[in-house]
Amino acid sequence: MNPHRTCQENMDALKKVLTQRTLLALSRKNVEFVLAHQADSNQQLADYLRQCRPDAVIGTGGYASYPMVKAAAKAERQREAAEKEARQRPDIERVGAIWQRFGTLREQAGLTPKQYFEEIDCPWSSLSGRAESLEAGGEKIEPNEGLPFGYNISLSDVNSWSAAADALGCSVDYLMLRTNEPRTADEVAAVPRVCASQMALAAWMPGGTTPAEPCDVVAEFDLSGDGELTSRSLCRWDGEAFRFGKSGDKIEVRVVRWLALPEVEKEDRNDD
What pTM value is reported for the model? Predict the structure, then answer.
């Protein structure tokens, strides 16, 4: 300490000396770092950044001041952004598809966005003014973008409804008491519809339907798989499948159409 200086002057001088020594030590460390890591890849440098946080060295720039480290940090940010975009893309595409389908249905119903939101008792929805733009894909969509099904409804809510229905093995409509059919529409469509009766003897019934009860039928079958080659044959519907009359083998090809035949009444030999 210099006795001819004030206490503050001595403290300032000491601070200056310590700062210079610190900068010198950091400079040496920086040189050592460059020499040790000059052949490292961007990924290796990015890993090093995550471990030691050189950008936390206040007032000096630290290792992060070197171009090679800056490039690694930039590459790491780009990689993280790409991973985030890949994670979010499915949700973003699904939200966009929901809005597009909603727009088609809204126009078919002849409703303006304002009329629609009034119909669902959400007249003050902020989506009313953006609906047409979102339907047309004119806005940037985020995974948590609102959906036109009420106030503050997003994809997470829709996913919760769907997950609940899937866990219980039913449709969302059944869960919400909108139908007494627990199966989804696709599941119902996959099951052949049973016709209660045949309106006329000469009326062909379409493939995908079945007789209401076991009977003999004349059926036309698709032999080629594309409808180009068909064959008409007498067979039997046993309540579960169409089968050849004599062998009883199940007919595996697609039924194009069928015609139920009335049961043949056996003659009573005792009749005169």
Answer: 0.49
Structure token pair of residue 115: 């009329």
DSSP bridge pairs for 191: none
Q: How far is the CA of 151 from the CAs of 105, 124, 157, 199, 228, in angstroms?
A: 19, 9, 11, 50, 53
Render the burial of 214-238: b for 16+ CB within 10 Å, e for the rest. Answer: ebbbebbbbeeeeeeeeeeeebbbe
The tokens describing 165, both together, are: 């229905």
User: Rounded to whole angstroms, how far apart are CA atoms 272 and 250?
Assistant: 41
The string of pLDDT tens digits covering residues 223-261 is 888 878 888 889 999 888 889 877 788 888 888 899 988
Say how far apart CA 47 and CA 40 lie, in whole Å.
11
Contact 205, 218 (CB under 8 A): no
